[in-house]
Amino acid sequence: MITLYHGTNDPFDTPDPNRGRRGTDFGQGFYLTPDFDSAANVAGLSVARAGSGRNVVLCYDFDENKAEALGLKRRCFASLDAEWMAFVIANRMGDRTASDHNIDRLYDVVDGLVADDKIVTLLRRYQMGELTQEDILKILQQRPWRTVQYSFHSRKAIMCLVRTEVIYVS
User: What is the DSSP string of 62-114?
Assistant: First the structure.
């Protein structure tokens, strides 16, 4: 079991991968992180964007054994490398011609590092030809912190999550 957290402004009962935004790192889905503080920060951003609600962190246990038994397709990125970069660019840009993407929910669960706003800026500069892939990967490897995220893209994947707690943060 892995404990994961989801920051929100609304303590909903059942996660829905269809409610997630399109054009995100790993495709439209339900995103969580093993880092409580990151989830709490996302909760604050959610309240600010919506202009309502409370900072809420929903806690879940992810049963990897159940995911394997159900035959879920899983994509794991262990590091910031060329494969991760190409995958994130394809998903963020909606590029179905890319060799690997999750726009059409080819994977049930994807986990890897977050592409925050600074990384997205670098990826845009890469697409405009200002930076090479090697330039970006070198910059990313020097980053002092990295946040991991898990994204769930199917109802079958959601079945592997059990909510354990709702925490209101200030």
Answer: E-HHHHHHTT--EEE--SS-HHHHHHHHHHHHT-TTSSS--TT---SEEEEE-
pLDDT at residue 120 is higher than 70: yes
Residue 110 phi, psi (nearest 5)? -130, 135
Q: What is the mean pLDDT of the chain?
A: 90
Q: What's the confidence (pLDDT) of residue 144?
A: 63
Tokens read off for 164: 């354990």
Alpha carbon distance 156, 144 (integer Å): 35
Residue 33 DSSP class: B
Task: Quickly tell me which residue has 């079991």 as its tokens.
Answer: 1
Distance CA 26, CA 151 (A): 7
The CA distance from 13 to 36, in Å, is 19
CB neighbours of residue 131 within 10 Å: 17
